[in-house]
Amino acid sequence: MKHITHNGLHLLLPALVLFTFLFGQIAEAADFAVIVNAGNDYQAAETEMKTTVKRLFLKEAGSWPNNIDAEPIDRAQGSAEQQAFMSQVLNLDAAALARHWMAVKQKTGQTAPREVSAGSIVLKLIGSKKGAFAVVDTASLGGLPGNARILFQFSAP
Amino acid sequence: MKHPYTKAQLSSGALSLLITGVILTQPVLAEDTNRILELERKLERSLQAVERLTQRVQELETVDNTHNSAASAAKNQASDDLTRKLAEHEERLAGVENTVFEIDDKVGSRTIVSAFDAMELTLGGFLDTSYTVADGEDGTSASFNRQWLGLLIGVKLNESWSAFLGQAFVRKSEVEYDDPGRRRDPTFDRQSESRLMLAWANYHYSDELNIRVGRFVTPHGIINIEHFPAVLLSPEQPLFLRTPLFEQDIIFSNFTDGAQFHGQTSFGFGNTGKFQYTAYVGNNELSSTKHIYGTRLAYTFGESGFTLGGNFSKGERRNEPAAPGTPNNLGQNYTVLGVDALYDKGSFLVKSEYYKTMEDNGARNREAYYIQPAWRITPQWTAFYRYDFLDDGNNFGDVEEHVAGLNYLPYTNIRLRAFYTRRLFESGGGFGSADANIYQLSGTFSF
Known about the structure:
The structure holds two protein chains of two kinds. Chain A is α/β, with parallel strands linked by helices. Chain A has one domain (30-156): 3-Layer(aba) Sandwich (D-Maltodextrin-Binding Protein, domain 2). Chain A has helices spanning 2-28, 46-57, 80-90, 94-108, 119-128; strands spanning 30-37, 71-75, 114-116, 132-137, 148-156. Chain A has a five-stranded mixed sheet with strand order 3-2-4-1-5. The longest helix of chain A is centred in the first third of the chain and has 27 residues, at 2-28. Chain B folds into two domains: 11-112; 120-446, Porin (Beta Barrel), CATH 2.40.160. In chain B, 23% of the residues lie in helices and 45% in strands. Chain B is built from two helices and 18 strands. In chain B, a hairpin with an 8-residue loop joins strand 4 and strand 5. Classes of the chains: A alpha/beta, B alpha+beta. Chain A binds chain B through residues 44-45, 47-48, 51-52, 55, 60-63, 65, 67, 69, 91, 93-95, 98-99, 102-103, 105-111, 116-121, 142, and chain B through 84, 88, 91-92, 94-95, 98, 122, 124, 126, 152-155, 159, 162, 164-165, 202, 204, 206-207, 225-228, 230-231, 264, 266, 270-272, 274, 302-303, 376, 379-380, 409, 412-413, 446.
């Protein structure tokens, strides 16, 4: 009996550590969403939507696939939304993003999207511009206004 | 004083009194009992009334509590709403304040520059400078050989039209060689020039179709399109693009004055693959009458980081005598075919281009290629190597270069570099082979 208990502890401890780690990871994951104007009916498979949003945000493309002119909105540098968007949608780190904007500036004279820190202003801009899009923290959304909709959601650690 | 009554007399008197008292008090006791009973009934009624009142009070208290709870909940809700709205307004106010501070920092009390007639106007540019030591077979030379100020102006005229202007102010000297074979005795020969690099207007009909007119970077390959030093690992472009003060077309002209169609569309790889095209017609760098035309097609394989491009152009070389030692290309027609490959993902960046020309009038065909792998060690540090080959069609032999260097970006808009180049001149034209070792420190500062 003592032998079994000893073995059980050997199994239990790593299991507990693993559980704690996994649970911790799940508990720390936050949810974000890319939202667009309700009048923008673009919809596709999630991978395609992410690529489209990435290209529009990076100004590699200028229009949504439904020909609506895109108006990307960036979030405050260093904010949870901006970090999550950069890592999960753009798949770039800060240095790569800076390199990208430097290249864009020299190729076409375009600049990075405007940064907006206040969520309420983001919602107003999304609601007033048909091609606008931005990332928001779903927890801080409250009720999404009728003139905006979620394009897709994603989680970030 | 002696008592006048005996004990017997006293005892009989007391007994009489007791009996009389009992007899006299009988009606009084009966009356009290009635009153007690009456009082008990009244008490019972009072208790019942108290109980009813207690119940009523409890009922009222319950109702009151319910009212209070509802009122309290409503009050809390209102308070929460108010707090949320306050937080929103504070957030918005903070955003507005930040914007005001940023504008104030940038503008201060100065007059804001505004475009005469444009939706947006952005101004930027870069300063590029270098110090180079060239060690040849017959001598060594060193120079602060490049000071290049580039001004870039982006203009958004309206939702469909934009323009982009680039003006260069350059004091520059390439590594040149004084010896007759141009390979043994390096030196620097400074020249200054102010030159319009870019001046184009773009009409955006859709992502699939744009029309650009004016002066633009010839849309071939990878590095010529990137072109400016702020984004290049080495400001010394590959051999086939390295022309003195923009004035040569070894393989193709670096810049073109003309018009182009360009666009892109998505297909393949779950619709994440990207196809890009450019087709142009124009005049080459030095000739205002000779026309060139060409196209570039490229495909990016989804999110793999891999892009493959194909290039074609056709035209006529400049119709004036070339400088001594450079290709003599008096009015000859040429065709260029080329492929380029780019891998850019995570820590690794690989660029490679290959071109082959077909020259007429009996001139030698030309060939050029390079491969440039790079490793982003950290966000600040990047190491790179480039193998570069050029056969520019002359009779002086081919040239090879091995370049190894480091880039350091202390800030995203400052790029500092150190690199070493080993240049190998193949024998030709009656001259033997030679080597040169070139060391360069450079910095590019963008704004």
